Amino acid sequence: MSFTLAHFSDVHLGPVAIADVFGDFRLKRIIGGLSWGLRRRAMHIRAHADALRADIHAQAPDHICFTGDLVNIAARAEFRRGLEWLKTVGTPADLTMVPGNHDAYVHLAHDTGLGLLNPFMEGDGSSNDHIFPFVRLRRNIAIIGLSSAQPQRLNKAGGTLGKEQRTALATRLADLGARGFYRLVMIHHPPLPGLTPARRALTDAPELREVLKDSGAELVIHGHNHTTQINGLDTASGRAFVVGVPSASMVDKDGHESAQWHAYSVNRARGKWQTRLTIRRLHGATGRFVDVRSGILGQDIEA
Ligand SMILES: [Fe+2]
Ligand SMILES: [Fe+2]
Q: What are the residue boundaries of the structural domains of the chain, listed by start?
């Protein structure tokens, strides 16, 4: 029996209020607020994110994965609104999140900021500890959540895992692989070198690639680039697929990939994992999501 997963990312939930920009002053927030008003507000449409949620619910996946950038400038009010919206997508048991760079836009007390979303970012059976990587087991699928979100300088949108997280990831991947789990890794930033410009990149992507190569993984999903990216990586235990999804709220206009989510169906056939990917994209004129591509990774869809 297959296990079905939905993946979406980069909701950039609006609107950003003036009070969010100027309350608890930070220069980076002012610039982020300007960017929202001048550019992003017209790109990220909340109604599209709501329609995407409805489309996911209509397919009733076994689990939902969200790879961050829920908010825009990490204002406290944004996290409160973001939490309310996430609760309409799924319960903490059915929805797993990892944070994006916009969720850590500026340094903010954890309890009143990103910490509000902790229930979606915890491993099975963990208490209030908020430690990455966390692991959630759902049937024969192991969901491993990483945090690449760290406050960045004014002109940067990068991220870093750090040695501690990479070392723990290597141990967990090896252990879960030996126990026969399908290893699904969630990270906001593209995990391999060269997938995004240096200003927006994961600083330790080369080191992460080595961890994935040595310890193995079946699927790595990410967001951040607001575009569809399908790549592969040969690992010690076979081919890992690395798939990025565009923004969940993007407008349907030239030059942008409109709101999109990815439906996965994972099967074990003849001793091998098989991952089917179906790309669901918003058709702006009708407001409906449609299949734009579907196939088995590494077979029908090259990676
Ligand atoms: Fe984003
Ligand atoms: Fe991002």
A: 3-296
Structure tokens given for 36: 């929202």
Four-CA torsion 102, 36, 227, 47, nearest 10 degrees: 100
pLDDT in tens, 44-66: 999 999 999 999 999 999 999 99
Strands 141-145 and 63-66: unpaired
Ligand nearest the Cα of residue 159 is 2
Domain 3-296: CATH class, spelled out = alpha beta
Q: Tokens in use for 1?
A: 């029996």
Residues lining ligand 1 (ion), CB within 5 A? 10, 69
CA of 12 to the centre of ligand 2 (A): 9
The answer to pTM > 0.90 is yes
Sign of dihedral through CA atoms 97, 149, 204, 156?
Answer: positive
Sign of CA pseudo-dihedral 201, 206, 209, 211:
negative
C-alpha 3 to ligand 2 mean position (Å) = 28
CA terminus-to-terminus distance, the chain? 24
Q: Are strands 238-244 and 260-269 parallel, antiparallel or unpaired?
A: unpaired
Of 190, 147, 150, nearest in space to 169 by CA: 147
For the segment 81-124, what is each residue's pLDDT rounded down to a tens digit?
Answer: 999 999 999 999 999 999 999 999 887 777 888 999 999 999 99
In the block, which residue shows the tokens 């081919």?
239
Q: How far is the CA of 42 from the centre of ligand 1 (A)?
A: 14
Residue 223 CA to ligand 2 center (angstroms) comes to: 7
- Distance in Å, CA 222 to ligand 2 centroid: 10
